[in-house]
Amino acid sequence: EAVRQLDAVSARLQWRASRGKVSEVMDEAGQLSAALEDAHAKEKKERKSLEVLQKATKSSNAFAQVWEEVVQWKPVLDPGGSGEYFYVNESTGSSTWDCPEYLSYFMHSATKESVWETPEAVIALRKAQADEQDGESAVENAKMKVEEAKRALIMCQSRLKQAEEFADMIKAAAREAADS
Known about the structure:
Elements: H1 2-64, E1 67-71, E2 73-77, E3 85-89, E4 95-96, E5 104-108, E6 114-115, H2 120-179
Antiparallel strand pairs: 1-5, 2-3, 3-4, 5-6
Helix pairs in contact: 1-2
């Protein structure tokens, strides 16, 4: 009789311990679920930011379209194998080993005005394009975080199911020990 009672007490203690593990895994699942929600919110925020950046790029493009970059000097790798570059003038065919101050100039399509310095509209467009690329990277990173959070939650849910099944087995063993 004493052995039977000891077995029953031991089984109950094991069942309580297994229920404690179930509670721990349930808490972890709750935290992972919250992390998944946060990751989804971050992805949504990054997508909205990207939309704003894409609109800015379109707007900048409208202003920059009037400027055409005309490449005047093209860098060419030395065919002699020195690893150095020389520069060829696209319009005259002349060449030089010294890098020209300006490799290209910009021409306004309507006025035919040409300038050596990069026009502000073109600078703004290039910045907007770079910002848009950064935004696209942020969205991709946010997507990866969502996928990581999903995988972690799925793994946790699997551990939870296993812990619950184990707790149920221990409970059945405890009842059996108490009944015998």
